[in-house]
Amino acid sequence: MADQGIFKTMCPMNCHPTLCGMTVTVEKGGGIAIAGDETNPDSEGFLCMRGKAAHEIVGNDRRLLKPLVRQSRGSADWADTSWDDVLDRIAGQMQVVGREAVGVWQGHGNAVNDYGFGLKRGQMERFANLYGCHFWNPAMTCWGLGGFGLGLTGALETSTKEDLSAHSDLVILWGVNTVSQANTLRHVERAKRRGARIVAIDIRKTEASALADELILVRPGSDAALALAMIHVIIADGNWDAGFVAEHTVGFDALKAHVQPMTPLWAQAQTGVPADSIIALARSYAATRPAMIVIGGSSLHKGDNTWNAARAISCLVGLSGNFGRPGGGIGPRHGSRSHGAGFADLSAADRRLPGTYVPNQMEAVITALERGAIKVFVAIGSNFLSSFPDTNRVRAALNKAEMVIAYDIFPNQMIREVADIVLPGTIWLEEIGAKATNTHVHLSDRVLPAAGDARPAYALYQGLAQRLGVADVYPWADQEAAMNAALDHPATGHATVAMMRAAGGRVPLKISHVAYPTFDFATPSGKIEFHSERAAAMGLPPLPVAADTSDGSGGLILAHGRTFAHFHSFYDHARALPTLAAREAAPEFWIAPSDAEARGIADGDQIEAWNAGGCFRARARVTARIPAGAIWIRDGWPGLNALTDGAAVLPDAALDAFSFSVGQSHFGARVEVRVTQGGEYPQGLS
């Protein structure tokens, strides 16, 4: 750390697998300037609007800089206090309720200089394991359910963007948009210039669809039906890869019988895609080698798709024989790793104290709060209230806890509405960290001193461990030493922070650009499993299935995703950063012209979407870029999840199938929409 100079770091957003390098110029007087790092092999100097706005985090007068204690539940009166006072209060309450009544939840905010590397998550888990309290993996709110479907098939590894641009002759962007995979999309463009054909499958005309040779619009929640109909066509035509299927898969005969009734006409009713288009896509995919499918990371797996879309798509890839081959298989997606990637695990999972723990499932966490099993709840870098569906139920559940603590850098919905204690966190430039893409691990060095009384998250664990008498929670001399311990892995070449600094701020990971190069798949059989006995043992369908989305049960299907100006609820829903707040002054619902006309809605009207769960107000954007029957909005707006379904998707027997969390709720919604007069937009918006 120095007073002035130019430093390399990483963007404080977590758009994995798009993680972008930055150069930060610290100016005389403490100001900073940010630019893209042209030497970064992943981003090559690129920064999107979110990254370019990151300089507005520094010196922001909305930052949390003092520990705060709410004077009484439900009031807006806060008092400044000290870290020692707050840690005494928290530890004292933890001692009163007992360790098994304490739960720790972390969100994306704990990984702004750590995503893909995972040290800070491991440190939080180490505290929870050695102390013996509840903690949950945040993958359940994002990509975990899609990972579950892929994992049942045996397709968790992904090939790299570099392999895509060099070798793929067909690229299918399935629920993928440039706003969340900008660095991947640059390689898709390179593949196109080389002659590859690009197909986009989505629920709306996205930014990425401009790059595609063909756009296929599907009804939200019907992607599994489309994939199954494509499998039907390929099998009916006799165009599957017979050699790969015979040698590297199990369950083909069962799959063949299973998809026999799943014809293109059946899928047309489910998806809204004409049967002829389904046939043409299936035949094009089967005939083109190598072909790569890039699968969306979060929104694709919410609503009626759940885990079965990823399950069906990965079976489609297995049928085509594209796994384990340059340019084929499944491309980079949120939460995935390349073959051979990894870091040392510091979480002390083998030393976890025995206890009756709430499993990694959203419904289970909320139920535990409702019945009083979780009395002290700690949220680290998360707007828990906005992250979970069925917001009104979540708020009521949190209010049943005796103490709710939030560690963050800006106020957010959870802090305003339910937190009792707030701890100020350091921003990404005020502490050392690292972020890992599918090919590299990049250093995010400390550049600035911590502002105010802000402290890194490990100070919370250290302080609580000292007061609670928990040994060995932080056995390292400092965070650089902890990073060295995590980096001590064959995939990094046993790198150290010093080695990374000497190499320009990064080291390449010793990985294969092609997933599953040895054709050894992560299933009990070691093969791609069309039919999964493991799924059957969990009480789940052993073959991929599709929800029935053709019944027209009324209302509009609510769908959501990202925009250039936001990332979930980061930075107070992007309201704290003026550039991003100006780009999206208020929430917008995309609605098709026919649906708008039927409801008397004009472009720019203030409208209200409502169902039994609640209501949400936004401006109407009447556009032909979304098909009739659906309504779309970017996620993360405070209050939006009052509309979404919090029902559990998987049984308890499935929750520990993989190392990541798969216990996502349904998150789907059907809504009605009407013009509304007056009223307010969500918290703090106008």
TrEMBL record:
Keywords: Iron, Iron-sulfur, Metal-binding. SUPFAM superfamilies: ADC-like, Formate dehydrogenase/DMSO reductase, domains 1-3. InterPro entries: Asp_de-COase-like_dom_sf, MoPterin_dinucl-bd_dom, Mopterin_OxRdtase, Mopterin_OxRdtase_4Fe-4S_dom, Prok_Mopterin_Oxidored. Residues 4-62 form the 4Fe-4S Mo/W bis-MGD-type domain. It comes from the Bacteria. The keyword Metal-binding applies. It holds the Pfam family Molydop_binding. Belongs to the prokaryotic molybdopterin-containing oxidoreductase family. This is Molybdopterin-dependent oxidoreductase.
